[in-house]
Design goal:
Structural class: alpha/beta
Distance between the termini: 47 Å
Helix content: 25-40%
Largest sheet: 8 strands, mixed
Low-confidence stretches: 1-17, 23-32
Strand content: 25-35%
Length: 326
């Protein structure tokens, strides 16, 4: 795994797939769950992380309808259609399928049977018609959760992501500074590796960044002088983790005697990733420093700050210098 010369960033196309949604959001996919897929499910693009119940649209209110959303047909929609005449029902469904949404999904499949017109119109307009035995609310919640994860903006950064005392720590620094060596020392001390060299970061909410490793290099780490090591094989599956929320960014840098490093911890530093500010700290690297212990301490200290405790502030209060806190 050659180290990148600089941080590589790219945004993934916001294309999700109905097949992945079906696997994640409706694990109990019964036989016949897909009534009509116009093409292979992994070829159906889902571009936005929102779903819609088209009750108002079926009733004739067409304003603000977003045809890019997955359309969920629940008990209310199906009962409304059953109360219409065959002609009116066909007309309402024709209007819906003519919009060509990514898919129309009928919930509660054990008690709701899709109308024959739905299958006819799905074939006519090449719209996927699917079923789920989940209740409508459960189905929508699962779909939104999966869509937010799969369609989240993402970048790839050169670094190492580890979990230390439950805190996700992204270690950044120049090539050869010792990121991988630090990670392997942390693994030996009982912590877990998430990603080495290339870290995929996804913005899953306005306040949360999730990190993982590209599948083809997952669990591998490069140690100069030794080569490639499979951490899961060498240290056991308890030494690795598939993904982790990002709580702290640690930037390793060669010791610079002219630079003023953080001494008290009163000043809060942040590192911005995809518009989300993550607490950050810079740690100087010099011979003899036990960086694994320093990083463990940084993880615990960051955890305490999130819980409302700041050791530096307590010290100032004890010294009678609490007026300096402002």
């Amino acid at each position: 795994m050659p180290a990148h010369s600089r941080a590589q960033e790219h945004r993934r196309n916001k294309d999700g797939y109905v097949q992945r949604l079906a696997q994640n959001a409706d694990r109990a996919r019964q036989p016949g769950g897909g009534l009509y897929p116009p093409k292979e499910l992994d070829q159906i693009n889902v571009e936005i992380a929102e779903v819609n119940r088209p009750g108002l649209f079926l009733a004739g209110y067409y304003d603000y309808f977003d045809k890019l959303r997955l359309q969920i047909m629940g008990l209310a929609e199906m009962n409304f259609l059953s109360g219409l005449s065959a002609e009116k029902r066909y007309e309402a469904l024709e209007q819906l399928f003519r919009q060509q949404p990514p898919a129309v999904i009928v919930g509660r499949s054990e008690e709701l049977e899709p109308f024959p017109e739905m299958l006819e119109l799905a074939k006519k307009h090449s719209v996927a018609l699917l079923r789920s035995n989940e209740t409508t609310c459960t189905l929508m919640g699962s779909l939104i959760s999966v869509l937010n994860l799969e369609l989240a903006p993402r970048i790839t950064r050169h670094g190492v992501l580890v979990e230390v005392y439950g805190e996700g720590i992204l270690i950044l620094g120049d090539s050869g500074i010792g990121k991988s060596e630090l990670a392997i020392e942390l693994v030996k001390r009982g912590h877990r590796l998430v990603a080495d060299d290339a870290v995929e970061l996804r913005k899953v909410s306005n306040r949360q960044i999730m990190g993982t490793a590209p599948e083809n290099i997952r669990h591998f780490i490069e140690l100069r002088g030794i080569g490639i090591v499979n951490v899961a094989r060498v240290f056991g599956v308890g030494a690795v983790k598939l993904s982790e929320s990002l709580d702290l960014v640690v930037q390793l840098e060669a010791w610079d005697p002219t630079k003023n490093y953080q001494r008290t911890g009163l000043e809060n530093e942040y590192y911005e990733i995809l518009g989300v500010s993550i607490p950050s700290t810079s740690i100087p690297v010099s011979p003899g420093r036990n960086l694994a212990v320093v990083l463990e301490t940084a993880a615990i200290n960051n955890r305490q700050k999130k819980m409302g405790y700041n050791a530096a502030k307590e010290l100032l209060i004890r010294l009678g210098l609490d007026d300096k806190l402002d």
